[in-house]
Structures are given as structure tokens and as C-alpha cells.
Design brief:
Blueprint (H helix, E strand, L loop, with lengths): L1 H16 L19 E12 L3 E6 L2 E15 L14 E7 L6 E8 L1
Parallel strand pairs: 3-5
Antiparallel strand pairs: 1-2, 1-4, 2-3, 4-5
């Protein structure tokens, strides 16, 4: 009787021991978007805090969008909290071209 039980248990366990598992790996294609940051220097022509700034440089007036992430710092790297005034010299680091120029960082030159 014991022998029959042992044979039955082994017969039931054997398929589980040789069972294979399926593993499916799915990879998503990746896309790379390259953005370049350039800068322009000039004087503030028009400034609307949190919205836009127009800088008059060697190529004439250039308009930029100011986002919430735009940082305005002085030459020492300290954050400028006062509003910019027309005539102040600035260096604007931005990304995008044409009508889609967005300010990343702006340095007020003293």
C-alpha cells in the first residue's frame, strides 16, 4: 500500500517538476529629442513678469516666452527678485526657435 501511494505521489509531482514557464519581454522603442540651449545678449525693451520679455540685441528686438521654470539671476548667481527695467543689460539662455523661444535662464549683467 505504501508503495502504491509513493508511486502515485511521484506520478503527480513529476509533471510539475518538468513544467516550463513562459517569459515574455516587451521592449518599447525609444525616441530621443535633442534640444539645444543658445543665448542672446542685449538690453531689456519690454518686460512682462511671468509672461514675455523683449530683448534688443545686435539682430534687433527678439521676443521670448517666460515660463514658471525660468530663473533670473545676477552675475554672481543670486536670484533676482526685483522686476527688470527697460535698458538693463541681460543675457538670455533659451531653447526653441522662431516664435517658440522659451527662456531657460536669464542673467542680469551689472
Amino acid at each position: 500500500m505504501k508503495r502504491t501511494i509513493i508511486i502515485l505521489v511521484c506520478a503527480l509531482i513529476t509533471p510539475l517538476a518538468f513544467a516550463q514557464t513562459n517569459t515574455t519581454t516587451t521592449t518599447q522603442p525609444t525616441t530621443t529629442t535633442e534640444t539645444t540651449t543658445t543665448y542672446t545678449a542685449g538690453t531689456v525693451d519690454v518686460y512682462h513678469p511671468g509672461k514675455t520679455i523683449v530683448v534688443r540685441g545686435t539682430e534687433g528686438p527678439v521676443s521670448f516666452a517666460l515660463g514658471m521654470a525660468a530663473r533670473i539671476v545676477n552675475s554672481a548667481g543670486n536670484v533676482v527678485t526685483s522686476a527688470l527695467t527697460p535698458g538693463q543689460r541681460v543675457r538670455v539662455y533659451y531653447s526653441g526657435t522662431g516664435q517658440t523661444r522659451v527662456v531657460d535662464r536669464m542673467m542680469v549683467e551689472e
